[in-house]
Specification:
The complex is a heterodimer.
Chain A lengths: L3 H13 L1 H33 L3 H16 L2 H12 L3 H25 L3 H9 L4 H34 L9 H9 L6 H30 L7
Chain B lengths: L49 E8 L9 E8 L4 E5 L6 H8 L7 E6 L2 E2 L5 H6 L1 E5 L10 H5 L1 H5 L4 H14 L4 H4 L9 H13 L5 E5 L7 H18 L2 E6 L2 H7 L2 E6 L3 E6 L1 H6 L4 H7 L3 H8 L12 E2 L5 H10 L4 E5 L5 E6 H4 L11 E2 L4 E2 L4 H10 L5 E4 L5 E5 L1 H26 L1
Parallel strand pairs in B: 3-8, 3-9, 6-7, 7-8, 11-12, 15-16
Antiparallel strand pairs in B: 1-2, 1-4, 4-5, 9-10, 12-13, 13-14, 16-17
Helix pairs in contact in B: 5-7, 12-15
Amino acid sequence: MIPAEGILSFWEYLASRRELLVFETWQHASMVFQCVLAALVIGVLIGLLVYRRPRLAAFATSTAGVIFTVPSLALLGLLITPLGLGVAPSVVALTLYSLLPIVRNTIVGLSGVDRTLVDAARGIGMGRRRILLRIELPLAWPVILTGARVATQLAMGIAAIAAYVSGPGLGEQIFSGLARLGGANSINMTLAGTLGIIILALLFDACFLIIGRLTTPRGIRA
Amino acid sequence: MPDTVPPVPPAGPTRSAAPSGPADPALPGAIDPGDGGPPGEAASAERGGIQLINVTKRFPGQATPAVDNVSLTVDGGEIVVLLGPSGSGKTTTMRLINRLIEPTSGKIIVAGRDALGLDPNDLRRQIGYVIQNAGLFPHMTVGTNVGLVPQMLGWGKARIKARVDELLQLVDLAPDQFRDRYPRELSGGQQQRVGVARALAADPPAMLMDEPFGALDPITREHLQDELLQLQEELGKTIVFVTHDVDEALKLGDRIAILDKGSRIVQYATPKEILLNPADEYVEQFLGGGQAMKLLKFSRVADVPLQQVPQAAPGDDAAAVRAQIDAAESTFAIVLDERDRPVRWITVDDLDGLTGPIGDHGTGTARPIRVRNTLQQALEALIQVEHEWVPVVGPRGVYRGTVTLSTLQTAIKDMKEQTRSRRRQDKAADS
């Protein structure tokens, strides 16, 4: 199928579209980063609100789970009606998908904190907020961070599909390539988009490892 | 016959009250042993005394209260052990004191103040809290853990650091070595020391300890118990200590409250009183028999009358020593060195045909026991020596008297007799 010079021309393709590819890669990374960050803030807040009430916690997790089961293409399509095309539906969809792992891990992390430690904290006169900020959140942090890491990997892939609603990012390469399959450079485009996303995903994952290392106290590091 | 002398004054800390006579004068306002009724309101509140007055805790959905109308007075500077089987409500009772559990009704007074009228967090910062497995925060260093309460109280950084080092030293952990370590890098015993240091950080008048040594191996546990007693000697905190371990209770408690279901206080008395005079079958069953052996284990040599035997010095004339032994209707004398430390026994047989100074005739004494040793240790020594006598020494090894098997036997008998007669007197006074 793909002739040997096809590989060569892939490098040529990369060189010829360098600026566009760098721009799209940057947009892709930026969108994923911002959406996961937003989901992290929202998800941790939701987790904090519900983790001490098992029923609410179950409700939050299952709601996030339901959102998660909606196919990304369908959700993006549904969002066109209220939000139109472009950045808005992409960002909303990405944030929603990122919520599930973060909410779930926040709840799991916080309720996984040894109750005797919370008891000890109360016993030495720590108030609710202080226990949360100084004991529970730091101890749950590695688990929450893992949630964010999983969310980032998910968002990387789903962000590609955002091109369906004219969203930003490397998805455009993949969609254009697939749209004119067999045409000039169609394989190169798809390949560039896919490889770009894979590389981004690996870079982000490495970042998470470093962040985890830096933000986890030595006393609870695995 | 060697006559007996009154007991020597205790040299070390007395862990048990005086064997006879009225209530220990060091315990003002002590309530009657075996009496679970409401104590007098006048009990000492200074030095962090704790009082529970008709306290009840009813958990929702439970038929019987977990703590049922309990009144208990812990005098300032005392270690009171709450002893009972699991489910007796001892931990619940303890947690009522720092309001980790809010009582359904009743009154709680800590260091002279109404605990229920204070902000719970303020109250808890004034009561040290030690739990099983120490409950150290794993993501904080030892130093941070210990400095938490001072930090909450708004102390300056330098003051906290100085205090942390002081406390680590107090619990026998070198500050430079341990300050910046994390809890998981410490052994269980070391962790619990840090736990105690953390509880002591802001120098609270009172401490609550919930089975703090329960998860440690027996050797470490003994160590930490001894250290706690040593610390207590220095610090004089009011300590409420929860355990289900009878031996631990007998060892640590100035007084022990034995609890039954609903935290009902079956007996509240000194360890000796409880061993000699269990209030009822429940207590007896809980002690699990072997009370006489336990009594030996928890009584000090200082508490029993020692035998006096004729004394001699190496320079004494043999005939004079012989005369002294005869006068005392004894068969031997103890030879002391120039600093009154026991060196040898000399018997009438050794003296036969001897003239002039006795010099180093006779046989060396076994290693002397000390007044602060337990009677169990004395018994151990007696079983192992070739004579029936073991010398007792006080500080600087100065001879105090001699114990024999019959000394111990008589001591136990006397203790029992005295307790019995005191009880009769108490009963007579009550009616």
